[in-house]
Specification:
The complex is a heterodimer of chains A (421) and B (249). With 421 residues, chain A is of the alpha/beta class. Chain A has eight helices and 19 strands. In chain A, strand 1 and strand 2 form a beta hairpin. In chain A, helix 6 packs across helix 7. The longest helix of chain A has 19 residues. The termini of chain A are far apart. By secondary structure, chain B is of the alpha/beta class. Chain B has ten helices and twelve strands. A six-stranded mixed beta sheet of chain B has the order 6-9-10-3-11-12, with helices on both faces. In chain B, strands 2-1-4-5 form a four-stranded antiparallel beta sheet, with helices on one face. In chain B, helix 2 packs across helix 3, helix 4 crosses helix 6 and helix 6 packs parallel to helix 7. Classes of the chains: A alpha/beta (421), B alpha/beta (249). The interface between A and B is medium-sized, with 24 and 35 residues. Magnesium ion binds next to helix 1 of chain B. The site of magnesium ion (MG) has 5 residues of chain B, from helix 1.
Chain lengths: 421, 249
Amino acid sequence: MLEKSLVDSIKTIDSLTQAQQLALGKFIDKGFPTSKWEEWKYASLKHLNERNWKWSPETLSVNIPKPAWKHSVIIKTLNGNTHSEGTLPQGIALLPVSEFMAQNPTFESVWKVRNPILDQNSLYDLNEALASNYAILWVKKGVKIAEPLLHHYLVSGQQDTAVQSKIFIYLEEDSEITWFEQQRSESSHAILSNYVQEIWVSKNAHLTLIKDQDLQQSITHVDHTFIFQQESSLVDAFTFSINAAYLRNNLHFYIDGPQVVSNLNGLYVPGEDQLMDTHSVVDHRMPHSESNELYKGVLMGNATGVFNGKIFVRPDAQKTNAFQSCKNVLASDRATMNTKPQLEIWADDVKCSHGTTTGQLSDEALFYMRSRGISKATAQTLLLLAFVQQVIDKLEHAEIRAELSEKIVNKIQASLGLTLL
Amino acid sequence: MLSVKNLHARIGEKEILKGINLEVHAGEVHAIMGPNGSGKSTLASVLAGRSDYEVSEGSVEFFGKDLLDLSPEARAAEGLFLAFQYPVEIPGVSITNFMKSAINEIRTYRGQDPMDAVQFLKMFKEKMAYVNIDQSLLSRALNEGFSGGEKKRNEIFQMAVLEPKLAILDETDSGLDIDALRIVAEGVNKLKTPQNATILVTHYQRLLDYIIPDFVHVLYKGKIVKSGNKDLALELEERGYDWIISALD
Ligand SMILES: Nc1ncnc2c1ncn2[C@@H]1O[C@H](COP(=O)(O)OP(=O)(O)OP(=O)(O)O)[C@@H](O)[C@H]1O
Ligand SMILES: [Mg+2]
């Protein structure tokens, strides 16, 4: 149940539709997730009850430095409002979701009967209640864009503000895009940044999804990304969790067709007073598909990390290959990591494997390096950078790779007080 | 240059080195032999500064400095080098990056300017020739997936790059094929000067055909129980250790 004072303030929001009111009711009943909830055991949001939230965020405008690569458009989601600047490439449109559904009744009927998402939580309800008229990026059939589309997500507030943002990405058959999302904040006040992303990847489509999560220490950021993949589609997802006091990723893949490939790559580097929690779900509902999860974490200071990776292989999903690996380095003796792989397999002809490790840097390796004259700090730096590089190197786009690499290296070096010669 | 006196070292409750005495001077080659588990690698590790071992008694001086007081990296900067019996695999770190960090940190320690990329590459190429190391190994992650012999050769390559004053080679000959053994031995001989010294830990006379030792020591149960010249190695090859051990008991 939500705190009484917050119930009173949230109920003053008017002109909600019936569906929105229903979702709001659910949120009020459930309240913010606490550690009593199984899926939020290590990542309670109880502290959100102590703030006097402003529920309708202010309107923002912002100038973003142009990315290093050639581009013609930036898509911005500023405190929940999405618009584009510059010219969208041919075959791509950004429009309100209601308008899109009106133009695409066939898809709307398919969308309405999609399988419900798993682990539906109260923050999703809150988002549904308040982020109603969100935008959809519509990539038309056969449209292939080589250059990444830059999405700038920003939250801000002059007082403690709860921001609900949502975006829908719809890839038609045979289309291909790279969505590079910078998640940022600009506020010294507490911000609840509650973000839902729904993605439909049609037959033979290919999406590269890159999230660069670098928010301020006053921010509680919850990212719900739900990806629905159809026959023979391919998704390469990357989540780089770099900064925020509290960062939760709920990343779900629903594999709705055969010959689907889902690649989930993640790197989290929480430092002092930061918590980063990844809850991934890969739901294999159809046969002959493949999912690969590679997660790595470097935990510094008194950071807390959580990885919960669920893989479901439904009875129809024969010949599924599902792999999961989660490796963590505790770079401080005050840091903690909680891992929980969760495989539920109902089909019999499948190949699944998972492995999680959490440990310190190898003493053997450190001694070997030091015996060559390399100082302990440099040896640690080299080992940590090599450890994270494995995820970063999977990024194909050179500029994005360089940008993220630099940022992550700086974060690790600053947190540990290390520098390379 | 090296003076080891009554060195005792333990790991947990277990005492492994029980009073080692060893004097090494510039220009000398010492061979240390001895049965498995006698403490040869432990001695090498203690000298290089591995912290698993606790030195409970004795002293080690290196060019007049208290070696035991220095960090492993400071020992390296002072001119000590250990070629590991089991070189460690370091995934994701290339040899080039690794050696560049090593060289420049050592130079900083010695108050020298760091080497620039051009100088470094030139020197690197020269040293590669010493051990005939394959260029392709250098872009790979350090020791990762290297064959046993490749790892050993890479140790000697690193030694060539770092030019130590005292090199301790712990069974660098084990696992090398006949040609590789010759190449590695020639590499070691080329690096020899009147100013530096080498300690060879080995089980086989074979290596000593190529690198002629001035002294041969037998380590047994944590002590040097016999020392001699190169003929001692020949005798050990022929007769084994029993005659020495039984003379002790
Ligand atoms: N980390 C350790 N923990 C427990 N015992 C150890 C450890 N390191 C070495 N020892 C023990 O110390 C003894 C000496 O080992 P060491 O490796 O120095 O022998 P060695 O003479 O190099 O043998 P080899 O010829 O087989 O290489 C052995 O009994 C070994 O088991
Ligand atoms: Mg040994």
